[in-house]
Amino acid sequence: MHGHPSPTLDQARTGRLDAVIDAAIAEERIVGTVVLVAEAGEIVYRRAAGHADREAGVPVAEDTIFRLASVTKPMVAAAALALVEAGQLRLDDPVTRHLPAFRPKLADGSEPVITVRHLLSHTAGLRYDYDDAADISSGLDRPGRGMAENLEKIAAQPLAFAPGSAWRYSMAIDVLGGLMERATGKSLPEIVAERVTGPLGMADTEFVAGKPHRLATAYADGEPRPVRMGEIQRVCHNGWWLTFAPQRAFDPTAFPSGGAGMVGTAGDFLTFLEAVRSGGAPILSPGSQRLLSEDAVADLDIEDPGCGFSLGWSILRDPAIAGLPGSPGCWQWGGVYGHSWFVDPARRLSVVMFTNTAVAGVGGAYPEALRAAVYG
Questions:
Q1: Segment 370-374 long-range contacts (CB within 8 Å, at least 24 positions apart)
Q2: Could you tell me whether strands 357-358 and 219-220 are parallel, antiparallel, or unpaired per DSSP bridges?
Q3: Does the active-site annotation cover 6?
Q4: CA-based Rg of the chain, rounded to a whole angstrom?
Q5: Contact between 333 and 70 (Cβ < 8 Å)
Q6: Residue 276, class by beta-carbon neighbours within 10 Å (0-12 exposed, 13-18 middle, 19+ buried)?
Q7: In terms of Cα–Cα distance, which of 119, 118, 252, 237 is closest to 187?
Q8: Which spans in the chain are helix H?
Q9: Pair 264, 204: CB distance under 8 Å
Q10: CA within 13 Å, CB half, 240
Q11: Considering only CA atoms, which of 295, 285, 288, 358 is closest in space to residue 332?
């Protein structure tokens, strides 16, 4: 079928999406949300609903800015691939080439080689669930923590496995951010602005929130409804505790976290996804775009059944095993401040679902129901 989908198809999908959003807001599972659906390069659904600040009665607008958490990672990965294209970095560079002091050891005391490719694919042996005693910032907490100190603390912990032998979601993109700074002599915010957000005109996406009046208040899951986050907010997700410090978004002294440190709008992130989906220009070559589109860990199991991982995000291997609607080869990930997104390249479809509710907006019924509504 060529041209536009028939109006009835569009109306049916709009009705389904509206119903999911209306229910989540009415039941107060989500405080505020922006949902954008693009098909063949055109936005076919857009909706802002609920509150950016519930207590002050401020509604969410389409240009509301959110704390992005792991929605940061794809943009930092793309910036790293742009540096590879520019000859400032190589995927098979040992991390020590740029960060000579970063030498974590295996449990047996041996020191394996970790490469840039291991970092991008989360196969370096790093992790997220370090003991509190390790005092490592996830990029969501510990305002004021500097880059060098955080890298030192990560390197002091034993690796979970030999690099390349397994997959584990991890602090790898934070390490990559520090490495990119050393490789270029520039700060990570400068690199990302120069390589990704600048060329794409993503004016609201940055590391330190420069437009506080448009930044959504962060909320944490609670009963009977989400609670406004305090200065330090602990939230349980899949049996482990996440610690948030929402004020970090305003802190220029906190290290720029490649894994979790940016703020931005749903529209900006859709612009990024669409640039990559349609081939990579103006930020990446088709070769780099392939590295983001193809499973880089085909011989490994990742934590999500039926899925693999590229050099930037999860790749849907088998929709039936994963229990997800979509075509094989779909790209997907999210962010613990409450975001979920996916791209179905076979259907030329990109979907961004942002909320200000951690973690219901990323790991719960809401994003699942939205995804089901998109596919009908």
A1: 370/17, 370/20, 370/21, 370/35, 370/340, 371/324, 371/325, 371/326, 371/340, 371/342, 372/325, 373/13, 373/16, 373/17, 373/19, 373/20, 374/13, 374/17, 374/37, 374/325, 374/349
A2: parallel
A3: no
A4: 20
A5: yes
A6: buried
A7: 252
A8: 7-26, 72-85, 116-120, 147-155, 172-184, 188-192, 266-277, 286-293, 319-322, 365-375
A9: yes
A10: 7
A11: 295
- Helix/strand/coil percent split, the chain, to 5: 35, 20, 50
Strand partners, 49: 33
- CA separation for the pair 372, 376 (Å, rounded): 6
**Pair of tokens at residue 234:** 């602990």
- Burial class, 126, CB count within 10 angstroms (exposed 0-12 / middle 13-18 / buried 19+): buried
74: its two tokens: 């794809």
Report residue 78 as tokens: 């793309």
Q: Is the dihedral of CA 300, 344, 80, 65 positive or negative?
A: negative
Residue carrying structure tokens 């990029």: 139
Alpha carbons 42 and 10: distance in angstroms, whole number: 13
Over the chain (376 residues), the average pLDDT of each successive run of 10 is: 60 97 98 98 98 98 98 99 98 98 98 98 97 97 97 98 98 98 98 98 98 98 96 90 97 97 98 98 98 97 96 98 97 98 98 98 95 97
Three-state SS letters, 149-187: HHHHHHHCCCCCCCCCCCCCCCCHHHHHHHHHHHHHCCC
Q: What confidence score (pLDDT) does residue 130 get?
A: 96
Exposed, middle or buried: residue 122 (CB in 10 Å: 0-12, 13-18, 19+)? Answer: buried
- Report how far residue 303's alpha carbon sits from residue 319's, in angstroms, rounded to the nearest whole number: 15
| Residues facing 237 on adjacent strands | 240
The one catalytic residue among 6, 70, 288, 314: 70
CA-to-CA distance for 265 and 200, rounded, in angstroms?
A: 13
The SS3 assignment for 92 reads coil
Cα-based angle 134, 145, 340 (whole degrees, multiple of 5): 85
CB 78 within 8 A of CB 69: no
Q: What is this structure's pTM?
A: 0.97
